[in-house]
Specification:
- The complex is a heterodimer.
- Chain A is of the alpha+beta class.
- Chain A is 24% helix and 27% strand.
- Chain A is built from three helices and ten strands.
- Chain A has a five-stranded antiparallel beta sheet, with no helix packed on it. In chain A, strands 7-8-9 form a three-stranded antiparallel beta sheet.
- By secondary structure, chain B is mostly helical.
- Chain B is built from ten helices and no strands.
- Chain B has helices spanning 2-11, 18-39, 46-70, 78-99, 102-124, 133-154, 161-181, 190-209, 213-234, 240-266.
- In chain B, helix 4 (78-99) packs antiparallel against helix 5.
- Classes of the chains: A alpha+beta, B mainly alpha.
- The A-B interface holds A 3, 6-11, 13-15, 17-18, 21-22, 25-26, 28-29, 124-127, 129, 131, 133-134, 136-141, 143, 146, 148, 150, 153-155, 157 and B 76-82, 85, 112, 114, 116-131, 135-136, 138-139, 142-143, 145-150, 152-153, 274-275.
């Protein structure tokens, strides 16, 4: 038995290395989720092609405001596309889903424009993952358009609703955390 | 033959129906495999048998991707890549245990590597915490290390023809990834930059122990690459650069001289086998 193991040790080691790495990465991804506190704060976001609208949303004095884009916008004279609109959504982390909300209801909320929530989470986009690895081994899943709640050494994918093209990277605009 | 099939199919792909597309790819792979099985029963047809098994191995993943695509599944996802690579690995691993051909071992290693990389990609897919360059580099590093170990194992078996391939790709991946992990000033990783010479000299030492030209060549090339990298990283500005280049050139000549000397002195006779 010992001789057999000694003789086959390079084979065992060669096969064990990738298995150990898979296990290590799986543990690194999933174990912190067990100890991370559940996200407690909802957030507000808008969806729509921000470059095709004549207005945008912002947080001022902890309240949502609707503002017209100044002319010229950036370096070009902006021509508003009147048909384009931004839809407001409220994401609930407890249910992991978002629901549309009217401007009037959204303006009754108390909001924080900070990138990070009071409990240490922030909303970030996934990586596009477009490289030779993903071309051969898969992984090109339009990660830029997927949003994650990142914090406490974890990053959890969140389910969001979008208006318009869900694969358009500019279709999501984080506005603020609801601090009531 | 493989190129001919691919070109014929790709030129007429849009005119073929779904069933014919599956037949042309997966069907071809299965047919080639069956022909290989039939030929393997005749010792004088061992060569053609391997050729058909090779065609089967090359076309099988294409056939599986086509089939899943026609079933409506999104073929670019890592989950499906795991499934395809896993099925291919299972098929050729079972084939190896039945037929004991070196070609099946080679395909098992290739599909096993694909499965490993896809599985990691599946676990971390899109996750911004883990989609970093380092993860890719570590994956290549460990794949290279596994290849080196497998190459050493096979050098003492009936599949020793695989050792050259495994040593070559193993050292290429291992040393290449280790160099990449060292980074570039000012964002260099001190640990990997400092340990790199040990790794390279380790590979060169192994080339003597195992009498492997592959290790000697890649070890020497990566040592030269490391010298050039350090020169470009730390001496490319100011008056020191030309002098550093002269010094680097002299060191490279020295490395090359000793590599040739090692080859002449040690690269003769049989390499040691595992367990000896």
């Amino acid at each position: 038995m010992k001789d057999s193991i000694k003789k086959n040790l390079p084979l065992i080691a060669g096969l064990a290395i990738p298995i150990i790495m898979i296990v290590a990465i799986a543990l690194a991804v999933y174990v912190p989720r067990l100890f991370a506190p559940q996200p407690a704060f909802s957030f507000l976001y808008s969806s729509g092609d921000i470059y095709q609208t004549s207005y945008f949303f912002a947080i001022e004095n902890e309240v949502l405001v609707k503002k017209d884009k100044p002319q010229p916008y950036g370096e070009i004279y902006y021509k508003p596309a009147t048909a384009a609109n931004l839809q407001l959504y409220l994401y609930n982390p407890a249910q992991n889903k978002s629901i549309p909300i009217s401007l009037q209801d959204a303006q009754n909320l108390k909001l924080s424009a900070m990138k990070q929530s009071p409990d240490g989470y922030e909303v970030i986009s996934g990586n596009q993952s477009e490289n030779i690895f993903t071309a051969i081994f898969g992984g090109y899943n339009r990660g830029y358009n997927t949003q994650y709640l990142k914090g406490h050494n974890t990053a959890k994918k969140i389910n969001l609703n979008f208006s318009g093209d869900p694969y358009n990277y500019y279709n999501f605009q984080f506005l603020g955390w609801i601090i009531k | 033959m493989f190129l001919g099939i691919i070109i014929l199919i790709s030129q007429n792909w849009n005119t073929l129906g779904s069933f014919v597309q599956i037949l042309a790819t997966l069907g071809s792979a299965c047919a080639a495999f069956m022909i290989g099985v039939i030929f393997s029963r005749y010792p004088n047809l061992s060569g053609p048998s391997s050729a058909f098994f090779l065609i089967s191995g090359l076309v099988m993943p294409v056939g599986l991707i086509t089939t899943f695509d026609k079933l409506g599944l999104q073929t670019g996802t890592p989950g499906l890549m795991v499934l395809i690579s896993g099925l291919s690995l299972a098929m050729f691993l079972v084939s190896y245990f039945i037929f004991r051909k070196t070609l099946f071992t080679l395909f098992s290693i290739i599909f096993g590597t694909w499965l490993f990389q896809s599985f990691i990609e599946w676990i971390i897919s899109g996750n911004p915490s883990f989609q970093t360059a380092s993860i890719y580099e570590y994956r290549i590093l460990l794949t290279g290390l596994a290849y080196i170990l497998l190459g050493y194992y096979f050098s003492g078996t009936a599949h020793k023809t695989l050792s050259g391939f495994l040593y070559g790709f193993g050292s290429l991946g291992f040393l290449g990834a280790a160099m990449a992990l060292g980074g570039w000033s000012p964002n260099q990783n001190a640990f990997w930059e400092l340990i790199y010479p040990l790794l390279v000299f380790g590979i060169i030492y192994l080339s003597v122990q195992l009498k492997s030209n592959t290790f000697l060549v890649f070890g020497s090339l990566f040592l030269i690459g490391y010298i050039l990298k350090l020169t470009a990283e730390y001496f490319s500005s100011g008056l020191g650069w030309p002098l550093a280049l002269v010094l680097a050139g002299l060191i490279i000549i020295g490395v090359s001289y000793y590599a040739v000397r090692l080859h002449k002195k040690y690269m003769s006779g049989t390499p040691p086998t595992p367990g000896s």
